[in-house]
Write a structure and sequence with these properties.
By secondary structure, the chain is mostly helical. It has two domains: 251 residues, no CATH class; 134 residues, no CATH class. 56% of the residues lie in helices and 5% in strands. The chain contains 18 helices and seven strands. The strands form three sheets. The chain has a three-stranded antiparallel sheet, with no helix packed on it. It has a two-stranded antiparallel sheet with strand order 4-5. Strand 4 and strand 5 form a beta hairpin. Helix 10 packs parallel to helix 14. The longest helix is centred in the C-terminal third of the chain and has 30 residues. The N terminus is likely disordered. The protein binds NADPH dihydro-nicotinamide-adenine-dinucleotide phosphate and the ligand CC(C)CCC[C@@H](C)[C@H]1CC=C2C3=C(CC[C@@]21C)[C@@]1(C)CC[C@H](O)C(C)(C)[C@@H]1CC3. The site of NADPH dihydro-nicotinamide-adenine-dinucleotide phosphate has 21 residues, from helix 15, strand 7, helix 16 and helix 17. It is an enzyme of class 1 (oxidoreductase). This is Delta(14)-sterol reductase TM7SF2. It is found in: Endomembrane system; Endoplasmic reticulum membrane; Microsome membrane.
Length: 462
């Protein structure tokens, strides 16, 4: 049985903070959805009106959400090209995840040693859908399961649209869809909470087991809840929400084309940038195995709601805003915005790939020349390259991209900058949480790293 009353420090303001967030997060999402379609689009004002239950609840929307989850789960269950092992767990075991068939990280030049990484072994499964898609030249060689799911979804949606599926009607359904997704997230989190009651102690997350039901429901008790090999957290983090986000963006673009004859340049940029971000996440899906969410956080309401509702319905806010508030954008400014996104992406991908390559194999020649410091755990810390510039260079790149996603919406409203503001707060808080964990893990060595690399996210500023 799970031990109650673990001594882990309470986060997010403890049970009170968790209870407030349980209500505040969905309320904020609905506020944003309502404000985006209202004339004044005032982020800080009251919502334009309070929707009636009939406007929120639709059995069709619930059916659509469940069908979407079913489709993504079916794609997740397609035979994997490879299986990767996650980080070592409390009981010294490692979980397996269906993963990319890529050879090493694409961003860094491939090296023979990465072909035989100890973390990856060839799957016994076939690669039916992948092979078929590659033969049809729909999938580049080297892409994997997650990316394959994106391409297969695009093909299915494309076929559906050709057969008369009214994709441009989706924006009208955003409210009931968001309501259904929230309902699913609540029920799902409850089931996860109950499942954790019978999980062995070794399967529990370091936080999320305080004994307070509201806090534990919010944070999540079990680290990697699974049924057989189906990993709920890994699936939710990468598939339905992220792919749903680009689908909503596409539907908004199509509706704009119907309304105004063609999509605006601003809408193209927002769609293109965010598709690149999602495509990149699915292409480099193995990298998610070293993120804080997978290694440290339990799977509860915060992540379930975040993955299934918050990401698709609030991350598509810029495209929603543009549909109702068209913004003229000239080529020169569009080029500058593209450059900003490219710089952000370069830093984000470079930093994440460097750390992942190093964690997979520290003697990989692509990172072996980088300076490191030793820690008492035997793991080393990079102190040159991207990780010698600031302690979270990947956050910096991500924030620069967030700015580029808002700029096409102009500067007349604060609403499209919501993502940038929320994301800054999220990453500053996340950085502080990570510092605490690293301090616990590495002690003096972490202090030495902080002295050597004094800035957290933005060089010479923060
Ligand atoms: N779009 C979105 O909504 C969100 C995006 N993200 C993005 O997800 C990505 C992952 O973020 P996150 O999981 O928070 O954090 P990181 O990927 O930065 O992982 C932090 C971990 O990296 C390791 N590490 C830290 N410093 C070093 C170093 N110098 N050398 C080697 N290893 C080091 C430590 O773990 P260890 O030593 O144990 O390996 C640390 O706990 C980021 O790019 C972030 O921007 C995150 C949240 C939300
Ligand atoms: C609802 C709350 C305010 C907080 C919820 C947070 C979640 C939405 C995010 C926590 C970490 C995330 C990551 C990504 C998406 C958002 C969430 C789930 C990520 C999958 C986005 C794409 C990136 O390339 C990534 C590095 C794979 C991200 C991993 C973390």
């Amino acid at each position: 049985m799970a031990p109650q009353g673990s001594r882990a420090e309470l986060e997010f303001g403890g049970p009170l903070g968790a209870a407030a967030l349980l209500l505040l997060l969905p309320a904020t999402m609905f506020h944003l959805l309502l404000v985006a379609r209202s004339g004044p689009a005032r982020l800080l004002g009251p919502p334009p009106y309070l929707p009636e239950l009939e406007e929120l609840w639709s059995p069709w929307a619930l059916l659509l959400c469940l069908t979407w989850l079913g489709l993504q789960a079916a794609l997740y269950l397609l035979p994997a090209r490879k299986v990767a092992e996650g980080q070592e767990l409390k009981d010294k075991s490692r979980l397996s995840y269906p993963i990319n068939g890529r050879r090493g990280f694409h961003w860094l030049p491939p090296h023979p040693s990465s072909l035989h990484s100890q973390h990856c072994c060839h799957s016994m499964y076939g690669e039916v859908a992948g092979v078929a898609l590659r033969k049809l030249k729909c999938l580049p060689n080297g892409s994997g399961q997650g990316f394959q799911a994106l391409v297969l979804t695009a093909l299915l949606v494309g076929l559906g649209v050709l057969a008369g599926l009214p994709l441009s009607a989706l924006p009208e359904m955003l409210l009931p869809l968001a309501f259904a997704a929230t309902l699913i997230a609540f029920i799902f989190s409850l089931l996860l909470y109950l499942k954790a009651l019978v999980a062995p102690a070794s399967a529990l997350a370091p936080g999320g087991n305080s004994g307070n039901p509201i806090y534990d429901f919010f944070l999540g008790r079990e680290l990697n809840p699974r049924i057989c090999s189906f990993d709920f957290k890994y699936f939710c983090e990468l598939r339905p929400g992220l792919i749903g986000w680009v689908l909503i963006n596409l539907a908004l673009l199509m509706q704009e084309a119907e309304l105004r004859g063609s999509p605006s340049l601003a809408m193209w940029l927002v769609n293109g940038f965010q598709l690149l971000y999602v495509g990149d996440a699915l292409w480099h899906e193995e990298a998610v195995l070293t993120t804080m969410d997978i290694i440290h956080d339990g799977f509860g309401f915060m992540l379930a709601f975040g993955d299934l509702a918050w990401v698709p319905f609030t991350y598509s806010l810029q495209a929603q805003f543009l549909l109702y508030h068209p913004e003229p954008l000239g080529l020169p400014l569009a080029s500058v915005i593209c450059l900003i996104n490219a710089v952000g992406y370069y830093i984000f991908r470079g930093a994440n790939s460097q750390k992942n390559a190093f964690r997979k194999n520290p003697s990989d020649p692509r990172v072996a020349d980088l300076e490191t410091i030793s820690t008492a755990t035997g793991r080393r810390l990079l102190v040159s390259g991207w990780w010698g510039m600031v302690r979270h260079p990947n956050y910096l790149g991500d924030l620069i991209m967030a700015l580029a996603w808002s700029l096409p919406c102009g500067v007349s409203h604060l609403l499209p900058y919501f993502y940038l503001l929320y994301f800054t707060a999220l990453l500053v808080h996340r950085e502080a949480r990570d510092e605490q964990q690293c301090l616990r893990k590495y002690g003096l060595a972490w202090h030495a790293y902080c002295r050597r690399v004094p800035y957290r996210i933005v060089p010479y500023i923060y």
